[in-house]
Write a structure and sequence with these properties.
single chain, alpha+beta, two-stranded antiparallel ribbon, 5 strands
C-alpha cells in the first residue's frame, strides 16, 4: 500500500478531525465511530496481533499525531 512514515511529527490532531485528515491525506474514508473503535478496541493485523491507535488527552479531548496514525495504518494494513 505504500504508506509514507512520518517520523517525530508532534502536531496533534483531534480524533474528531481524523476522518477528514484520512480523506485529504490518503484518499480513504473512515467514519468517526471507526476511529474511536481503533483507539478503544483496536484492530487485528494480518498476523492476528491486536493494534490500537495511540492517543493522548488534552483538556478532555483525545488527540493523536500523524506519525501515530501512519504507524497504526502501516501495522494494520501491511
Amino acid at each position: 500500500m505504500g504508506l509514507k512514515i512520518v517520523k517525530n511529527s508532534k502536531k496533534f490532531i483531534r480524533l474528531s478531525d481524523v476522518p477528514v485528515w484520512l480523506a485529504e491525506t490518503l484518499g480513504k474514508q473512515a467514519s468517526l465511530a471507526t476511529v474511536y473503535n481503533w483507539t478503544h478496541r483496536g484492530k487485528r493485523n494480518y498476523y492476528g496481533k491486536l493494534k490500537r491507535l495511540r492517543t493522548k488527552e488534552f483538556h478532555g479531548v483525545r488527540h493523536t499525531t500523524e506519525s501515530w496514525l501512519m504507524n497504526f495504518l502501516k501495522d494494520v494494513l501491511c
